[in-house]
Structure formats: C-alpha cells, structure tokens
Fold each of these.
Amino acid sequence: MRKGAPGYLEPEPGEHTVVVDDGLDTNRLRDCLSGLRAAELKVPAETFLHGIDNIQSLIALPIVLISYFVIPYQLPEMYVHALNNLGFTGQALFTPEEANNVAEEMERLRLEEIRRLGDGTLIEESTSLLYQMMRLESVHAAIGALLSSGITAAWTAFECLAHDVWQSILNTYPIPLGQRAFEAASAEPATDGISKKMIEVSLLAKHSYDLRNCLGDLLESKFDFTRPEGIKKAYAAAFGSTFEALRDLDTEETKSLHQIRNLFVHKAGLVDQQYKERTNSTQAIGEFVNINGTADVRKHANAAIGAGCRLLEEVDKSLIQLKAKPKSNTVT
C-alpha cells in the first residue's frame, strides 16, 4: 500500500474490465420505480435513482476520459488507414477534393473509435493504460478518492430517500401515520418546541397554525435519519415495529455501508478502533481502509439499492392498503 494513498487494491491481470463493469443493480431499481402505485413516492424514488446513476457515472469517469484521451494519439495511424482505404498509397500531393475525402475518412475512423467505447474494446485498452498510470502515487490517490466518494454517495442516496419518503408520507397522511409518529416523538423529552402536552406557539406560527399537511416537516428533527437505528425508529413510529422494510436496515450489507461511509466522512478513511470493532476489520489502526476497486463500490451501492427498493415497495404497499380503508379522524 502506498503511504498517504487511499487503499485501492489493483485487480489481477485479465480483470481490467472490472473498472467499468456495469454491475450496479439499476434495473432492479427501475423495475421498482415502475411498479410504484403511490404518487407520493415518485419524486423521492426518482431522486434516489438519479443519485445511483451519478455513482455509476462517477466510477466510470477515469476510463471514459482516458478512452477519449487515447483517440487523438491514434491520428497518425488513422491517417495511414484513411489513405489506404481511399487508394492513395504512396501519393504525396492531393487535390482539394482528395484532401477533403481523406479528412472525411479520418473523421469516420475517429467516430468508429468512439463507438468502440460502447462495445468495450477501447475501454479495455484504456483500463490497461489506467493501471499503468496508477503506478504514479498522485493517480493512485485520486482513484482511491473517487471510489470512496462513490461509496459515500451510496449511503447519502439511501439516507435522503429514507428521510424524504418519511417526510412526504407524514405530510400527506397526518392520520394515522403523522399522528402515530407524533405520539412516539412527543413521548421523548421535550426538544425543538414539541412535547406530549404542547407545541410552542412560534412553531405553530411557522406552519400558519395548520399542521394538517406538515407533520413530516414538524417531526423530522425528532428522528435521526443518519443512522440505520434512527431510520428504523422513524418508520416504526409511523408504521409499527412489524413494518417489513425494517429488516433490511439490520443486514450486514447495510451496516457495512454505513460504517465505511462514516469512516470516510469522519476519519478520512483511516481505520480506527470503532471501525475495527464494528466490522471485524483486520487492518491496523491508522491504515487507509482497503477499497477493492469498483467491486466494493458496486457492493455498497447495491446494498443501498436493495434497502431502498425494499423500503419503497413496503411503503407503497402500506399506502395502498391505507387508501383502501374508510377515512377516519382518529388513529385506529
């Protein structure tokens, strides 16, 4: 491991395509979005998809840039190919029309090279070049930072989804979801102007003395959406402790994503005692945490996708069932 560089583990020979492997489970997420029936979930779900797509673009960026960078260096070879293709072998001078034909043929060859990005041929060549460049400490560190950003973004996308969905549905369904969450939140010590027996006048004034469509806005500060445990507490308050999606917040994949995200954000990727205890890491304290190339980014992003899809599907099912029930002004 290079001193001062994030722990990016280079793949074995022959695994070059792993860097741009399209392994994020975006099809699962798109299928989930297309199956949602509750309109309240559409915007946060599409925002979540956009965040995941950004991660996909982020980890592909080095290869895409190098692929386009490589093409200009192929111009002399393209020139020779263009001459051969047009039958100008050995010809030194061209008429304006012939010169234009050569230029057009070179452009065709250039575009053909760009299209090779799509079939993976040029990408594989560029990936090989990237691994050579990674012998430079500055490039190695930059790639590690890029990958750690992808992992951090995966947790952020899920955290925002969990928060925005919860806030939206409480605003839309003050009874029974908002009322349940309010009762759970007000049972805690009074903070932010809310307690079991009162709501501060200033807080009421902020919402024009009408809380019917803003309980999510009012209560969001009473719950912590930055941790799996806090998200579980928020959704259990609204839907009950048996809400199926809560199970996904207890998986090793989700917990691992949260732990490594915290390590990058709070410790700059340096392994500490807390990280070792919570993940059973064998790395020494003070080392940069190892990132196994885009395989780890893919693993953590797919954990976020899985938890996010499960959450959306279970909330969607619950909202459809809620809409089918007779309206009531009280919690049943």
Amino acid sequence: MIWYKIKGTVDVNAKMVDLKDFLHDLLKGKKNLGFEFRDGAIIVRGESVRLDDQKIKSRTIKGIVRDKTTGDPLPGATIKIKGTSLGTATNMEGKFELTVVDNFIALEISFVGYETVEVTVGKREYLDVLLKTESFEY
C-alpha cells in the first residue's frame, strides 16, 4: 500500500494500481506539477506546462525543392525543423507542406547527392529552395 500527501491539498490511498495512473491521480489538479519516466527514473517537476493547455500559434509552410542547375523538382528531399527530428519529405513534384510553431528559427533541407541548406523562413509562407549538387574531390 502507498500513502502520499502533497502539502495538504491531495491525498491518495492506492493499492495494486499502475504507477502511471497513481502519479496522474496524485498530481491531478496541480497545474504546476508534472511527471515523466526517463531512463528508469520518475521525474516530478514543478512549473510544467502542457502544450495542449496553451494556445500555441502555428502556421503552415509550403514550398518546392528543386535542382539549382536544371530546375527539376527533387522528390523525396527532406525538410526538417532545425534542431529537431520533426519534418517532412517532398512529394513526387518536389513540393512539401509542413506545420510549424510560429516562433521556430530555420529549416534544414537535404537530398542525397546534394549539399544540405539551412533556410531562415521569417514570415514567408512559401519557399522555393534550390539545392546544389555536392562536389566530390578525389
């Protein structure tokens, strides 16, 4: 049996319950507390903010990725939000669409055999990205 009390506001008496459910019930109504499981540990943190509780401004960036020399579209090029693993790939016409939070910094665009470029988007909603083939020295 587990008995835990948080500063006079929440009492939980639990027996044979899932730990995640227990912690969720324990911290219910405590908007300034949250928890996560990381590397075999339980981390209880203060001042956590759930993204779904906020009004986050997002926008959609559209564009095309093309070969700089020929102007041909590059299907399967990768468009990634810099510093994250979030992104998308271009379709068969080299076009893409990506929803981003409004205050992101830049996109990284890459394609096999081409130099990766970083594009600062600013307020633009459409990008025409030209990639240059990599030059190999032997």
Amino acid sequence: MRTSKNIKLVIKNLTVKKPEKNITKTKPKESAKKKHKRLNKEKFELEKNQAIFLRELFSKCSNFGELGEENVKKFFINEKYEIPHARKIMGDFITLLRKEGINPKEKKKYNEISTSIKDDCFINFQNGDQRCFCCGEDIKYNVREDGKLEPKDVACDHVIPVITMLLTVKTDSISKNLHYIHNKCNGAKTNRNIYETCFNLGKKNGIFKCKNDDNIEYCRSKFFDILKKLNLRSEEEINYRILNLDSFKKFIDQFKNYINFFLNDEVNAALALTNLALKCKSKSKSKSMLKSNSKSKSKSKSKSKSKLKSKSKSSSMSIN
C-alpha cells in the first residue's frame, strides 16, 4: 500500500532540480611580494636556459663563439631589429619587376628575377633529409619529371630572422639561412630569435605542437648544423650596420614613395590628385586670409577715423 510518506518521496524524486549557476570565481589579486618572487623565478629560469643554449651553441658553432657571449646575446637574442615596410617594399618592388613587360593575360608568366630565395630553399631541400627542423616530421613532396623533389604545404623560412640576418650574416652564406618548413610551423615561428626557436624545437608542449618529444634531439641537431654553416660578419661590421639602421629606415620610406610614384600608375594618379587638392586648399586658405586681412584693415581704419572724430570734438569743446 502507498502511504502518504511514500507518495511524498516519489514526488520529491520526480521534481526536476534546477541547474546550479556557474559562478565564476575571480582570482585573488597577486600581492606585490608574490609577484616579485614569481618574476625573479622566471628571470632565473630564463637565464639558466639561455646559458644552456649558449654552451651548446658555442660547442657546436665556432662562428658564433668567435663573436663572444655578450655580442651573441646582444645581436641575436636580447635585441629585436625591425625595419617598417622592409618586407612589404621588397615584395612590392620585386612583384613589379617580375611583371614588367609581361602580358597581363599571361597570369602565370614572370621574369626570372626574384626567384633566388625560393631557389635557395629548393636547393637546400634537395640536398637535405626532407624533414622540418621545427617539428622533426617529414615534409611531403612530389617527384617531378626531372627527378627533383617538389615540397608541399611549406614556407621558405629565414632561420635567423630576416633583419637580424641582414645585419649579421655575410651575403655569401645567406642562401644557407633559407630552409623549407611546414606552413603551420612557419606560422608559429614568426620572427622569433635563435634562442626562442631552439627552446621550442621538437617539443610536445612547445609552440610547434609536436606529437611527442621524440624529435627534440634531431631538431636541435639540424638547427645547430644550419647555424654553423653561416658566415657571420665581424663585431665592428655588425655595430656599424646597427648604428646606420635609423638612416636606413628613412631611406626605405623614401624609396617606397619613389617606387610607388614611378612604377605604379594608380598611386601616381592618386598622388597627383592629392597634390591638386592640397593646392586648392592652400588657395582657398590664402583667399580667406586676404579677406580676413582686408576686413581687419577696414575695421582698423574705421576705428582710427572714429578716434580722430572724437579727438576733434574734444578739442572744439575745449576751445569753446
């Protein structure tokens, strides 16, 4: 028999429980003491890892050892050298030269200029082991009719970032700084310096999102093998180039304007229109200035006339 107590229990079990609200707990603010302690710990870990990297670099790459520890830190790790528009301007200029004199309908046809970067990556890929030095995984490729290996889903990477490379690496070995890596690895690497890159190579929990940690040794070995083949500039040459970096930035800006003006008809037309607009504005400003000046002159004249009249009246009153 169902008693009233049993019925109440059944009803209680049937009632739908309201979902609990997700209360987001705000993290307590970090105290100044704890923050200072954390930052000191992070600094200590960074210095320790950098010291390990530098020891390995100097033991495997004598060219870097010749520059000395302080210079390597300064030129390749601690400082980030950037030139605004440098990549863009070279890309624009090269694109214009590649298409110069080519029929616009022939979209896939280009001049031979500007292919050297891709050629260097391609040659290094043929002579290498067809593996990405960032993650250690194989790079997929197709075999061409001429027997050459055509890589797929790759980007041509500057192992040492491009501006740092221009400051530190001699032109005769720049080709050795160019290597194919996976597109996704290139997106993760971006403009990282040699220490930041090396620290993440082949790691499962690193920026390259590797499947496991099995390729760390391979990736680091290949990375140092690339670096030791570079012909580096002397300390004096590098410092001289760094000193002239600001003037070079200004030159790049001027050069970009010249290229746009002389080789791009659309920009040329736009500049002409802006110049006309500026001239019209200046003319209207000058006209308004003349009007305002004439008005102010007429006002001053009327004021002076009124003053003279008042003076003459006062003098006549005094005579009377």
Amino acid sequence: MKFKINLMHSITNGNYGLLLDDNITINIRPYYKTRNTSHPDFSYSKIYWTTLIVHESAHGFVNPLVKKYRNEIEKIDIKLYQEKLKELCYGDDLETFINENIIRALECLYVKENFEDSYNQYLNDNLEDRYEKIPEIIELIKDTNYQNLDILTIIKLFNKKLLSFHIPSLEEMSFRQKLLADEETMSYNAKWGSTINFPKEKWEITYKRLINENDKNFYAYLYSNKQKCFIGEVGYWYDEEVGEFITNILIHAKYRNKGYRTIALTMLCDLAKKKGISFLSDTIALDNPSISIFLKQGFREVMRTNEYILIKKRIIKKRWI
C-alpha cells in the first residue's frame, strides 16, 4: 500500500481520500489559520506540514478499524459527549469523534518524538478543541510500545469520562491538607509563602465556606477515573470586593503535564455557563506558566501589576436583537 499526496489550493487544511488500487490518496491544502486565532499558527512550518500528513494518512487505516466496532460504539452513552459533538458540528456522529481522538493522539506522539519542545503546547491545543480522550489513548499506545493499536480497548475508554468533579465530605478535607502541604505542587505560590498549613481544626469552618448550596460558589475535587484517585481541586467563588467570579484550579504536581488542567478548565467553564454565570476571572502570578493555558482558552488580560495579572473570560455570549 502506498500513500499519494495531492497539494491543493483552498482555505481548509486537508482530507483523506478513498482507497484506490491499494493506494490511499491524501489531499493537503496549505492555509493560514483563521478559525482558531487564539492557537499558534504553525502554517508553512515543518510541524504543520508533517503533522497534517500524519493526520490525513492515519484516517486511511484508523477509520476502517473503528468502523468494525460500530456495535460497541452504539453501547456508549452519547449523552456524555453531546455538548462536544454539537460544538464540533458532528451531530450525533460519535464514530467521527472517536476517529479524531485516536488520530490526534497519534499526531501528538509524533510531535513528542520529533518536535519535543512543542509537545505540551500541541497537546493542549487539541484538548482545548474538546478531544479530551487523547491523554488516555496516548498512554494505551505507549503501554504497547507502539506495536499494536488496540482499537476495541480505546473505544471502551469512551464509556466514561477521564475526569469528574467530586464534592468532598468533611473527612476528605485530608486530601486538601496534603495538596496544600506539597512543596512542588505549591511552588507557584512561592512569593506568598509556598505551602499552606491546613490543620484539622480549620477543616470544618473552611468546609462550610467552600461547600454550600448556592450559585455563587462551587468547589470540588478532580477525580481521575484512570488513576482512581483525586488529582487536584477546582472551583469558583464570587468575590464581593471586585464583583467577579474567581476561578481556582490546582493540580497535584504528580499529575501535571498530562493535559488535566486544560480539561478541568473546560469543565469548569461549561459548569459556569450552565449556572448562568457570564464571566469567570482569575489572578495569576506573572511567573506562573498556567497563564498560557487560560489565555488559549479565551481568557483575556484586563489588568497587570508587578506581581500578577487579572484575566477574564466571557462565558455566556451576548445575544443581539
């Protein structure tokens, strides 16, 4: 089997062709990024051309393999992905969504091997585009040492979400105690003393402040369905002084650089939208690398000091009459 590449003029990026005479024809179209202007523009660079070829080539063998398991795909609860499918204009086509997750995982692995400095950025860009199964698929492929693409096992990953929110009990404040006491996790807080002491006698009053039934506060642990444990905390609260909803996302150092923060931020924004919140904000230290994640997800800088920047995102868009 051979891959034939056609270079074409258009404003879109590419598509895979039919299998003809044991050859797969790929159409590659050079373009400048216009649809996702917040993302890096890799156009006309080695990383753009090569990953595009990898992507469209992979469709030629991934799509037929996934198609064989349509009976398994029909068993997946589509409600888990309806919002994502709608945003990606896939309708109820879960099969296409699965194809894209697998192929983009292969893309990311290619980038890691050939453009390692761009890997985290490339992975986060794909996660921001709602392909949240990529980290799990990458781990499965790496576990097989790249020798076998187990499509059925990958499809079964879609039966459950990678991360979920867990409202902790009072006793589970012990996880927050460990989280705030971990030096590597709290290194971003170095200017304000790094780790935070959270003794048991403070649990109850903190719990009542964090966990309450109203639309102005939300607090939860991030639970990894793969790791079977808590990996961080997320939330937002309404700051009366500034009149803003302030976000909080803290991932344990052990679980960073896996794309979890990007997925968690997307989940938090989705929740805020359902609650009718128009804006989310955050103050981030200037030396905190997570700034880039927020900015790429649509947050904008609205104020800067010598120590931090205030960023803000409109969650609910204005409706013009």
